[in-house]
């Protein structure tokens, strides 16, 4: 398994970024004396020849969309190369292992995947029976491997160039964007988050010198903006600030964005001015909803009033806040969904939203912490393993119908590259129509007023 092509690593989707999870694992395999071949199927198609040649095929599935695409690739690889060992690794691999192991793959790894995966390859190479902590097979049950990884600098030289990925856009200006991570896991345990059943509130800091070396390599390849992809950049605020200070000192023209919880923005507000001065272009935060009943059910750690305070704070500091939303859950109502839309319209925040977020519906993967809540039996139905989620229906059928219509709307708008402001008002029109009210999209779009020009990435966020 040491020859080039014996080990094939495939990424399916990492939010439009050059795949970090491929680069990280590739570096560790090379350090161990292997010669992995890497393919990012988001921008290149694995050939039949490459799939037939591989002895080991590792497919990265850090999120739901990646898993959906990854299973398709695994099925194709299995038909072309029945003898290959196919392993899915990442958050969604282990959560969905029962389904995936039935026919599609040979092993699944969740959590800190590098060490178990290297041990798996060594066992296969030596012809040993597979019994490795963190590696789930048809014969061996194993939970996630949650121990500190000996991190190395990600290896990106084999990956497609940054020009093939999302860019930072400010008005008509485009900048090449890189991506890295400063931590793994998350110390918070929001009930709907797929990180919770894998990490259970633990997180690990990646050494500062490793992070900076990864950034440096991407800047050398043209990156002028960096996305910090941590679930929460301020899980360790001291660690995060060390990194952005060093980044700004070495590359003062390079900007960045990060994801930070609402409660952390409020708790560590004294860090925001320096964060802006170090080059922060915008911050993403998982707002999810402005319905306190929803936020309580999800154990988000913030309230609707906290969200409003955070928006005011960020406007004052001068860092655009881009919310991610989860507006379709069993506890959202037609009225509270409309209030959510009204909030963004009345505060002139429509430019802050990627329209896809108006359509996101709660996913409940196997192992979700939501399954353990006291009232889960009242609303969670059977598992749909092929969709990687438990089924549920809203008590108000109008909400399920609205979600389907809004999802179709934003998908078509994304395909056409439609005006996001008009798309927002089309979603509002659908919402009011569900309540028997008329609404003029054209008039609302005309009357919205001057458009803000805010920094954003050119690919919308999908889960």
From TrEMBL:
Top-rank taxon, per record: Bacteria
A single MF term (Gene Ontology): metal ion binding
InterPro entries in UniProt: BchE-like (IPR051198), Elp3/MiaA/NifB-like_rSAM (IPR006638), rSAM (IPR007197), rSAM_CUAEP (IPR054699), rSAM_horseshoe (IPR023404), rSAM_sf (IPR058240)
Keywords: Iron, Iron-sulfur, Metal-binding, S-adenosyl-L-methionine
Cofactor: [4Fe-4S] cluster
GO CC terms of this entry: cytosol
All copies of domain Radical SAM core, residue ranges: 172-405
PANTHER family: ANAEROBIC MAGNESIUM-PROTOPORPHYRIN IX MONOMETHYL ESTER CYCLASE-RELATED (PTHR43409), BLL1977 PROTEIN (PTHR43409:SF7)
Protein name: B12-binding domain-containing radical SAM protein
